[in-house]
Amino acid sequence: MKPVWVGLGLVGWLALGQSGGGSWQTLALLSEPRQEVGVAEVNGEIYVAGGFLAGGETSDKLEAYAPAENRWRTLSPLPVAVNHPAAVGLNGKLYVLGGYQSPQGLAGPSNTVQVYDPATAAWSQAVPMPSARGGLTAVVLDGKIYAVGGAGGPSLGDFAVFDPGGNTWTALPAMLTPRDHTGAATIAGKIYVVGGRNQRSFTLNTLEVYDPQTRKWAALAPMPTGRSGHAVAALGNCLYAFGGEGNRQSPAGTFPQVEVYSVRTGKWSSLANMPTPRHGIAAATLSGKIYLPAGAWEQWRTTRSSPRPLAPTRRTASSRVFLSTQVWRFRGEDKCVSVSVCPRLNAAGSAGFFAFDVGRRQGYSLSSPSRLERL
Predict the structure, then answer these.
(1) Neighbouring residues of 214: CB distance < 8 A, sequence distance ≥ 6
(2) How far apart are CA 77 and CA 153, in angstroms?
(3) DSSP for 172-206, written as a single string
(4) Which helix or strand (DSSP H or E) is residue 358 part of?
(5) In this structure, what DSSP letter does residue 146 have?
(6) For residues 359 and 362, what is the distance between their CA atoms, to the nearest angstrom?
(7) How far apart are the first and last CA of the chain?
(8) Can you tell me the distance from the alpha carbon of 86 to that of 194, in angstroms, rounded to the nearest whole number?
(9) 343 falls in which pLDDT band (50, 70, 90)?
């Protein structure tokens, strides 16, 4: 099959399921296709760092998205190009952790911590992580950075915390389930890690939670759809999982599923599918919305020219990359329902907005950022 490149402009798509759902908004495009990127919010902007380019090359590109302007800008490149890094924002700076340094493929795991300061447009390096790894994830909690899982060869359960004040790392108890290509988020002072893959399974459904107060991990209800290479984000008391790879029921090998876990009830629910299945993605939250930039919507074996679900191998490349950024907006901490904003063109041809409240099935028009009008 000949590779197909997909780029979408400001086109809205509304998806509603019987169990609830929401609308998606396609925003301004990245400058070029990328997947397996690091994504974080810093100072009210969404940053995308590193990843794979269309030809499988490891990228050093850094871009930032300004929601108010719906515009990306290219910034100073990473000193060390990496794919599969983790990224977080803390104290007005971007931290890019680990990743693979190989010009192509998943080799050369790194323990570097690259720090970008938007105020000076300059990079620096913090103390390296205790272990070199790519395919990890990271979260911020109480002013510290927690690096979770990854692979430096075999999948790792490695878990460590970075204190930027002391510029020090401290090793913590390993995850119960070693894994990479997982996702994590924080809710109510605890760290939730879900999905991923290891030598046992390419599509783990495992959900585990870490309590910094007790320094212990606990297993929770498994995710309905096991997957890896997905995006995870939290809003309120709800943990969201988007997309992923390892879907043997699809020729593309990717998952469209969106599932949400309620910390209050301890149960999972299914929402309407993503408009386009994607993997190699990461998420960032800002002002009650979840941003999902870049990624790939088809998974390929490196040894074949036709698309097939990926076998549990460490080498993968994707020839189809979804360029757009999509947005979910959450409202209602107790019920884990979503309110999503979606652009539409009005009669004058300018971009308006449409919001759909899943909980009450009500629509609203948004004529300006400060004014909601009921339809």
Answers:
(1) none
(2) 27
(3) -PPPSS--BS-EEEEETTEEEEE--B-SS-SS---
(4) none
(5) E
(6) 8
(7) 45
(8) 15
(9) very low
Place of tokens 């999902």: 292
Structure tokens at 247: 């879907």
d(CA 60, CA 50): 5
Short-list 294, 296, 364, CA closest to 329 = 364
Instruction: Tell me how far apart the alpha carbons of residues 347 and 328 are, in angstroms, rounded to a whole number.
Output: 25
Whole-angstrom Cα Rg for the chain: 19
Mean pLDDT score, 289-317:
53
| Averaged pLDDT score across all residues of the chain | 78
C-alpha span between 101 and 111 (Å, rounded)? 10
Contact yes or no for 147/138 (Cβ under 8 A): yes
Q: Which two tokens stand for residue 132?
A: 């070199």
**Amino acid 207: pLDDT:** 98
pLDDT value at residue 225: 98
User: Hey, which of 100-109, 178-187, 332-341 has the most confident mean pLDDT?
Assistant: 178-187
Helices and strands, counts by H and E, the chain: 0, 31
Q: Could you give the CA distance from residue 198 to residue 179 in angstroms, rounded to a whole number?
A: 5
Q: What is the pTM of this model?
A: 0.80
Please work out, in degrees rounded to the nearest 5, the angle formed at the alpha carbon of residue 99 by the alpha carbons of 3 and 179: 90
Q: Which residue has tokens 């950024």?
A: 325
Say if CB 52 and CB 105 are below 8 A apart: no
Residue-wise pLDDT for 17-56, tens only, equals 223 445 677 788 898 889 999 999 999 999 999 999 988 8
Which DSSP state fits 306? S
Closest CA to 199 of 316, 317, 315, 312: 312
In this predicted model, what pLDDT tens digit does every residue of 191-207 receive, in sequence order?
999 999 999 999 999 99
Cα–Cα distance for residue pair 98/109, rounded to 1 Å: 7
The 10 Å Cβ neighbour count of residue 249 is: 7
- Which two three-digit tokens encode residue 67? 């929601």
The residue type found at 375 is L
Asked if the model's pLDDT at residue 97 lies above 90, the reply is yes
Percent of the chain with pLDDT over 70: 74
